[in-house]
Fold:
Amino acid sequence: MPAEIISGKQVAEEMREEFKEEIEKLKKEHGITPGLAVVLVGEDPASQVYVKNKKIACEKVGINSIEHRLPADYPEDKLIELIESLNKDDKVHGILVQLPLPKHISEVKVLYTILPEKDVDGFHPVNVGKLMIGEADFLPCTPAGIQQLLIRSGTKIEGAEVVVVGRSNIVGKPIANILLQKSDGANATVTICHTRTKDMPSHTKRADILIVAAGKPKAVTANMVKKGAVVIDVGVNRLESGLCGDVDFEAVKEVAAKITPVPGGVGPMTITMLLKNTIKAAKLRIN
Ligand code: NAP
Structure:
């Protein structure tokens, strides 16, 4: 029997409905409208689409979206000044700087300037460290979205053998860390594979939950997957034939019990978790 499809689109819609209620409550009981400042430097077409989608998503749930679109040659020191002013702005609960930045600007310098309590992307080293010790305020958006997909699709995470393909700072390492925590929706046994892993199929074939974030089309094929596994495909590859993930979807869906599609799987969850983090940042301000 082909795998059940885990629809990120559907889970994202459910969660966004829940957010509307939370935001209404925040407005009524505390007079707070969560605000997200999004900073875009340059004219990268993909980044422009991401920023536009974030604005639309914010508006739909009732988050105030504040956009700063800056020219590609905007000086680094001016950008730092802008972030410092957003740090001080009470109406701004979350700050997101769209990556990649133009070459003359240090991403590290810019991201480290964002106050950890406004770092809704979860990339600041303070937030990375807090995740490590199980004290996270903001989980990075894509990994947090993956965890929600697993929980809301009824996948048993506790005690599961999880194999993550990819060790990037934005997906591979944080999802491994999240699912390793001694907490609900976690408690898994986690293995991370990368390009230096010897005999990758020997690992992936053991996985009850296989999470693939390699950035390589069809990096995972059916013979690398255990029968009945849950497969989460994070990859987004733009080919001439269209968008595809890192998993050979058509073949793997015949082996797996559940699988996410591309598009419509992990993708819609990333913005959803950004909205969630912005609401959380606003709530933390109350406390
Ligand atoms: P990345 O920084 O390029 O990292 C890729 C990782 O995969 C690296 O650790 C690399 O190993 C490993 N890898 C590559 N090919 C492999 C192979 N054949 N076997 C084993 N490991 C392999 O990528 P990323 O930023 O994590 O993103 C991964 C994918 O997810 C991309 O397609 C990206 O577009 C997508 N993505 C989607 C979303 C979303 O919202 N849907 C968000 C973020 C990323 P080494 O470390 O050894 O080089």
In short: The chain has a mean pLDDT of 97. The longest strand covers residues 35-41. The two ends are 50 Å apart (CA to CA).
